[in-house]
Queue: 3 jobs
Job 1
Amino acid sequence: MPQTNNEARILLALQAYKNDPELSLRRAAKLYQVNFTTLLCRHNGVQSRANTIPKSRKLSNLEEEIVIKYILELNLRGFPPRLRGVEEMANRLLADRDMSPVGNRWARNFVKRHEELDMRFFRKYDYQRAKCEDPTIIYNWFMLVQNTIAKYGILLDDIYNFDETGFLMGMIASGMVVTGSEKRGKPKSVQPGSREWITVIQAINAEGWAIPPFIVVAGQYHLANWYQESNLPGDWAITTTQNGWTNNETGFEWLKHFDQHTTNRSKGVYRLLILDGHGSHHSADFEMYCEENNIITLCMPPHSSHLLQPLDVGCFGMLKKAYGREIEHLIRCSITHVSKTEFFPAFHNAFQATMTERNIKSAFRGAGLIPFNPESVVSKLDVQIRTPPPVEEIVPSTPCGSKTPTTVLEAEFQTEYLERRIRRHHSSSPEPILEALKSFAKGTKAIMHGYALVKAEVQDLRQANEILSRRRRAKRTRLQKREVMTVEKGRQAIAQLDVDAQVAVESSRSGGQGRSAQPRERHCGVCGKPGHNARTCQVVINTSGEEYSN
């Protein structure tokens, strides 16, 4: 604030010096309590340090604002740039001013200089999943849930969610560990490495209780030690498949398991079962059984279970972490192989630790279902793949004055404002006009800087679109079946195909046109007559006979 007041006094002193010919510059500095040297430099055209761009920065304040805005926009669309991309943005703006490009560490220093930017490790994000993170799709889902509950009169006690999750028996996720400070590189954690797959089908209730798990293991037979040496509760179910994955049959058997454990606890006529789009959840037997037993199924939108499914939101993650801790305990106990016999007790301990009433209710709350709160889910959406609709320009009721214009209408009002002020200006202070001109120039520069970045992006998109168009137009021409083909051989084969195609085109063009359309008649190489060749020519035979007779 003191710096701003000092700047204002400097401007007043300069204005007073211009209006009063008898006032000296030193006297003006004394009257307005500013430094004489500073006032003299400003009078000679030297800008203040705040308005001067350091040589190390290269970009002006306005250009940096445009770059920051563009970076945040790319981040919102799910394409955050790397440091190299930020350098390219700066170099595009500098190229318009015929300036040299930025240095190697400019982008890193640029990010450190601005609080709204930060450098983080990115995480891979599936495009199909991001595309389904559309607020319209999410709101439609919650509207469907609300309407279904109202239509069938479903109570909160009768709302369930179920899904399956997989475990590699001897593999756990990577995480943070504590090691000695002198150790270099990433530490290694010994794991049993058993890669046999086990699927657990789990269902939870909105009131905070869990249905006994339905475990699918790989194999053909049930072994006695699974049940003798484990402490599994008696209501847990185990089934076998060829690979440990679920199918239509296991999905139908689980549904019977679900109906058996929820019928007596139902408070209303209908039960609501929220599920995903897996094929085993939508077989004919599955749907028919649900219809016969008053089970209403609602399928979530595809690629949205990480947002809308309570089990994915608040249960499965903790369950797998707890299972990993159990496996780590077995590792420290020198158990080098994890079989089904070790899996069942470890999974039971993890289940008891995580499938609590608090966690289950928190999962439904995080999914926005109970209590019903769609905004809690929509607020998590940070990527907009689809292009947002254009923002309608609002006509300002009053002239914008010295405000920097950001739309076409604001620029028009800025122009009209300047015209009126210039026409009315006689002996009044020109400061409002100058401020309006500065704002107008700033808005124009901002548009040009943004245009430079958008132009570069459009050029890249056009090139990518051209490449895709060529790929779509290209024919899938077969060159050779199996065997090995070098690049040079492939190019020769393509060239030969082009030659053959050209010959075929020329032949088709000449077809049916005069003498060239008729096939060329063969003539004998000995006598020159048509109808035979040199091998069957009678002249050769007769001649050879006469030679032998002589």
Note: The CA atoms of residues 8 and 157 lie 68 Å apart.
Job 2
Amino acid sequence: MSRLSSIGKPGGTDERDTNFFVDPARTSVNLTGVVARRSPHPTNHTMTLWLLGNQLSIDAAPLANTDEVLLIESYEFAERLPYHPYKLTLVFSAMRHFRDRLRADGYDVTYIRAESFAEGLAEYAAAAPGDDLVLQRPTGHRAGERLDELAADAGLTLTVVDNDLFVTSRDEWDEWADGRGDSYRQEHWYRHVRRETGVLMDDGDPVGGEWNYDDENQETPPDDWSPPETAGFQPDELTREVHAFVTDRYDHLWGNHDLDEFCWPVTREEALQALERFVEVRLPAFGPYQDAMVGGEWAMDHSLLSPAINLGLLDPLAVVEAVEDAYEERGVASGAPAEAVTREGTIPLNSAEGFVRQILGWREFMRHVYRESMPELSEANQLDATRDLPELYYSGETEMECMSEAVGHVWDRGYAHHIERLMLLANFSTLYGADPHELDEWFRFAFVDAYDWVTTPNTVGMGSFATDVLSSKPYTSSANYVNRMSDHCSSCKYYHTKTTGDGACPFNALYWDFLKENEETLRGTGRMGLMYNHVDNKSDEEWTEIRERADDVRAMARAEEL
């Protein structure tokens, strides 16, 4: 199976760049945690690889060309936002564990704890004057340029090379996107990447004859269903030490300050165990129930691998190939009942394809859209939404059962699955008319797997429809969707069948008010014709009641009485 090139020549940047440090060969990794690593190759000059906290890959190509590594644990950034304690604990613990792993593998690792990258680089320069630093391109907009400037201020030379922690290269995207204008569609990109990688392909055609089995992945589990246990990891002494430091160092953090729910892998070995657990136990029913929400179940059958992948502890293509290999061994046709699949230990195609689409489709897509659309994406607000994000996102206090569950999941563990993110947290914010950039900021500090490159296109673009770069219609819905895909409505004080009056679900009035408030922008937008037929069929009296109820809902939210 071929991999897309990870050595593409970047365009549209002032960063110094070179490819000659990059070895395209990859290390071999199996699910048991055994890693076969190349021995470092000698170079003609002193080169130190500077690894950031989300570049913790033992397979990073530049590691093959140096045994000198720099890691800087910087604290200044965490002052800017009230990050979830688990997010900071995860990053710093993973960095320190990675430091120890590299040293055990024979690398000479300089590990600096500093208030800022500027201070850390100055400390390093004092100890190693004239050293040349190599950095894999950061994912944040213009981050490479900013770090280049900091290195220069410290008297260091910084060379930026390609980041090989994604499946596709900048060149690959640029070639694909050429001539498509400023709007991109994930499905087209996804099919392209499938063809190029050969994942779930059969002689040029998709396995099973279809590219996308999303229609079969919208089931809700039976009443007696319960998900398999997660591959939770008990914090070791180093993680506990980091967590104590984090909670003592920062007094403004949002989220669970106790370590009782921390379950995230902090090492490559733990991440591989989590991958194996998902493939063996959780993948079979992942597809049918991936959009479902069940009270008291925070993980469902989701992989929970995104934090490890986004840190570099897992290679995204290796994860996809593990799923593909499992399907080849235990696969059955799509549409098999989830209960039967779980019992028999087989994997339906819709489960395998649904997961592959999350990685090769959405993850790769969002990374490139972010790169292409910044900085405009960070400022987009085509619906002119300027209201403050409701206080319930910060307090978690609401009698809306679905929102209480979703915010509670994030508070407890720094995580909620993708439908809770899109169709509850982002949907409610959008219908409410909240500023998409405040929502984006909330996602960035609240989620353990959040980074600018993934949150901004997801929340500003897809979730808030602040731009049409990503989609032709807003991802919004009334309570009908929540009721169809969850059991939340049955235990909620609000009635999902009511739009107006006391006890009416807030989603309903807000939904219709949203369509009315943004009619000039949305009417005529792709796939919105049916909804505006419903808009046109409502009487003036109905609209008066709807808009009054929407105003009441917003007032209740502001008063923290929703």
Note: Residues 242 and 262 are 12 Å apart (CA to CA).
Job 3
Amino acid sequence: MILSEQAKSRPKQKDSCPCLPKGRFTGKKTKEILMKTIKNIGLVIFLIGLGIFAALPLLGTYKINPSTLDEIVTKKRIKSEIFIEGLQKSIVGKEFQGMQSLSPLVGSAIENANTQHVKNKEYKKKIYTSASEMAALIGKKSGTGFMTNNKGLMWFLTFGFGIIGALMFIVPNVVLLGKKGIKNDGIYHENSTNKGWIAWLVFIFLVGFYLILYFKSEYAVNWTYLVDPISESLSGNPAGHWFVYGFMYCTVMTVMAVRMYIKYRHNVYQMIRTTSVLFFQIVFAFLIPEIMVRLQMPYYDFKNVFPLDYDFFFQWNLNSLLDSGGIGLFILVWGIVLTLVIVPVMVYFFGKRWYCSWVCGCGGLAETLGDPYRQHSSKSLFSWKIERWLIHGVLVFAVVMTGMTLYSFFAETGTVLGLKTQSIQNTYSLAIGSVFAGVIGTGFYPIFGNRVWCRFGCPLAAYLGFVQRFKSRFRITTNGGQCISCGNCSTYCEQGIDVRAYAQKGENIVRSSCVGCGICSAVCPRGVLKLENGPEQGRINPTEVLLGNDVDLMELVNKK
């Protein structure tokens, strides 16, 4: 009763405990709403830019005059009067809306001319330039109207909107993701990362983009106008469709690298690795080759290694290098030394990750643009069997083709064992260089994971894998006793390795397919996985599984 009266007499205090958390929650919620709003606005801006970019192949005005046609005929050394007369009648002096109305006429003129020349056995007059390439050249020279007069504006409405929108969508994740560390949730609940309708739309766009680049380059003419000023400032030449690809490649990697920096900001190794692939792609694969052209040198990417650079020993390339004097000879020697000496030595010390994860542009795009799709890489035994047969088959194909090429070069013959060397080269270029490496290798990211090409088709990856598997100090070691079987490592493995199965048994991961990206280690909540380049001594070996209740645990670790 006394306590009750005392309680009644006390002044009623405001309960502050619920208020403070509520205030903090409100502030946090407001910030989250603001960040999500920025993301949504950025997404809209990005989609507008992407939409304009995607529509450009079907837009534009083209009008060719006689002087322009004469220039093209001279440049391509065309001797076919039939072809020239056909173009003069069908396209000269006429205005065309969109490449879809111009390209068929060019293709028809080439087909009619070649048919007559073959019939008359006038093979020197036959046109060997493809209809797509010829239409692209004519379109590039004859473009008129808004596109050609407003290149800067159109660049801003496409690339500019894309960059700004993407960054507005990505950067708010600094707040929305919360504290540093991997949040392995939601990836199988989003249409963009679980093969939903968004992923399929991305798949269609990427495949379509690569099909245009490789097989219908005339439809990329309007894209070339966007980057003409950049190309002219670097090489002194107007942009072609491959310059568009190179610029877009670097742009996408840079923007998506920002996402990598945010997502993996808890791991210094991932920050350095991402910076490394950006540097080598932008500087070595894009800027230096373009500047070399401006300096009257051969176009060459010094980081590109045979057999990934499969045409390095092709006759046209060898002749070009040998005709370029000292710099050409240096490039030839450098390419051979890089393949036979530097690659195996670097793999021995650092594993195939020195190239696949630190240097390679294909790997760089896979790690940036492709990172949201890494969980789609199949971990099944069937996929592993297909992987081994395919990737080693491509390597054998590349080596045999190169052997035939070198024999033909030195023997001055076009055939080996009755097979035309040029036909073998064309087959490899189409099937592996274009379809596999390009269309499938990147276009299939949203469906089959980000390392489709690296895992199943790259001949250099197969070569590096041989060395890594049997003669390399690089291993991913595991502390099996600490594994909680969360599955993060296997989910994030882009090479289809069931890392968890190794970790549970405390076995080192020595698979030749491992590119050493280190993501499995970065997403492990227990520090089970460790990337090591040191000597075999002191490693955690399969016979030394560390258990949490092992009385000699600290003694064992200290000995390491």
Note: Residues 58 and 537 are 63 Å apart (CA to CA).
